[in-house]
Design a protein that fits this description.
Length: 152
């Protein structure tokens, strides 16, 4: 008797990005930690819906335009005011990020550090060698948008 065993394996990659946002840490944290404000600084996220709860455990749907329109179910898994925020994708596409934001007050500005653990499956497993560089570039633009937003 022949048995066929299929393993569906999720692979992952990580990347990091850091930049200065020209606003106090309290303002930067307030914007980044409010999912309703994500479309203001992330171009490919035109909509947030179905926000439930607050703080740790809060969930929301993030409409993403990346290789087509998709909705990611996101969940806040850690929240330390003005210091740290972790948002983890629960499902919705074959790229599922866990985004860890660290906020560091440097006088009147904020150093915002991002670390992303990206779980991949399907077609995106083949793209893993090029995805970290692409994602880092995308997040650099988001940080530029965030910096412009806080200056307005």
């Amino acid at each position: 008797m022949l048995y066929l065993v299929i393993f569906i394996r999720t692979i992952m990659f990580t990347f990091e990005y850091s930049d200065i946002i020209h606003a106090p840490v309290e303002m930067v944290f307030a914007i980044v930690s409010d999912p309703r404000r994500i479309p203001e600084w992330r171009n490919d996220v035109p909509g947030i819906s179905d926000v439930k709860g607050s703080g740790v455990g809060m969930t929301f749907l993030e409409e993403v335009h990346f290789m087509g329109k998709k909705q990611l179910l996101m969940r806040v898994t850690e929240r330390v005011a003005n210091s740290r925020l972790v948002i983890e994708a629960q499902g919705g596409m074959k790229l599922l990020p866990t985004q860890t934001f660290t906020f560091i007050a440097e006088g009147p500005v904020t150093r915002l550090q991002l670390s992303v653990l990206m779980r991949t499956s399907g077609f995106f497993r083949l793209m893993e060698p090029i995805l970290p560089g692409q994602m880092k570039g995308i997040w650099a633009k988001y940080f530029e948008n965030l910096d412009r937003l806080v200056k307005d």
